[in-house]
Design a protein that fits this description.
Blueprint (H helix, E strand, L loop, with lengths): L2 H6 L1 H9 L5 E2 H5 L6 H13 L3 E6 L2 E6 L1 H4 L3 H22 L1
Antiparallel strand pairs: 1-3, 2-3
């Protein structure tokens, strides 16, 4: 699958955002979403198969972190998307006041 197709999916972008600066267990990632653990696990699998995340085992836990080297060509695009999301949230909050 093409890298842009992989990161085009909104939940995968959110997963990347969560694990951009820190390593998290799959269960910690799944707890941030309103979908099943299995659905999040599938997204993590796609990200891992695409080489965009690194996974390591720690006992029975699987820990994930974004592979910044692999994502370097897309970093500006991702960060712009995340900033736009934050700007949308700020506008929504301001409109609600």
């Amino acid at each position: 699958m093409d890298t842009l197709q992989v990161i085009a999916e909104p939940r995968r972008r959110e997963i990347l955002k969560l694990i951009w600066d820190e390593e998290l267990a799959a269960s910690e990632i799944a707890a941030q979403f309103d979908v099943t653990f299995g659905a999040v696990s599938q997204h993590l699998g796609v990200l891992r198969q695409s080489g965009l995340v690194k996974m390591r085992k720690d006992g029975n836990r699987r820990l994930y972190v974004a592979d910044r080297d692999a994502l370097a060509p897309y970093r500006a695009l991702l960060e712009a998307m995340w900033k736009e999301t934050l700007a949308d949230l700020a506008r929504t909050i301001e409109e609600g006041q």
